[in-house]
């Protein structure tokens, strides 16, 4: 549970090293990420379905620990409050769903930039219709 948040927080704050305090912060942040139902049911770890939200909480803890230890290099976030930092982290978090849309958009742009929608490499309209030449 902590490793995605450790990596995300360390990368986003541009940490020069991973300190013991950052690892400790990841564990304490994980424990605070349990919701009321999980606490009531005495869960040790949050529901895996919430891994993205938990990773944000852990990343924020890691960032704050890096700042306190003086190993962060992303000076723009040093003065951010928790709400602003959370938004900043979420905006930079990898999202596989948006990645698919970005790749599809990029491919469409490449295909449409070919003369008359025809791929220069194989002469097939849009470069995708019919059997591939290697099959």
Write structural notes for this entry.
By secondary structure, the chain is mostly helical. The chain is 57% helix and 0% strand. The protein contains 6 helices and no strands. Helix 2 packs antiparallel against helix 4 and helix 4 packs across helix 5. The longest helix is centred in the middle third of the chain and has 19 residues. The chain is globular. The two termini are 43 Å apart.
Q: Key features?
A:
globular, single chain, 57% helix, 135 residues, mainly alpha, 6 helices
Strand percentage lies at under 5%
Helical segment count: 6
Structural class computed from helices and strand pairing? mainly alpha
Helix content: 55-70%
Query: Biggest sheet: strands, sense, closure?
Result: none
Q: Ends: how far apart?
A: 43 Å
Rounded radius of gyration (Å): 22 Å
Order of helices and strands: HHHHHH
Total DSSP E strands: 0
Low-confidence stretches: none
Cα shape: globular
pLDDT average, as an integer? 87
SSE map:
Layout: H1 2-12, H2 20-32, H3 36-40, H4 51-69, H5 82-92, H6 96-113
Helix pairs in contact: 1-2, 1-4, 2-4, 4-5
């Amino acid at each position: 549970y902590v490793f995605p948040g450790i990596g995300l927080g360390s990368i986003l704050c541009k940490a020069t090293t991973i300190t013991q305090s950052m690892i400790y912060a990841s564990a304490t942040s994980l424990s605070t990420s349990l919701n009321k139902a999980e606490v009531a049911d005495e869960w040790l770890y949050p529901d895996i379905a919430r891994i993205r939200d938990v990773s944000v909480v852990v990343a924020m803890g890691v960032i704050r620990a890096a700042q306190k230890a003086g190993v962060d290099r992303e000076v723009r976030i040093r003065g951010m409050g928790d709400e602003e930092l959370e938004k900043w982290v979420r905006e930079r978090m990898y999202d596989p769903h948006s990645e698919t849309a970005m790749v599809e958009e990029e491919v469409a742009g490449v295909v449409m930039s070919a003369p008359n929608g025809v791929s220069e490499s194989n002469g097939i309209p849009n470069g995708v219709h019919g059997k591939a030449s290697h099959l």
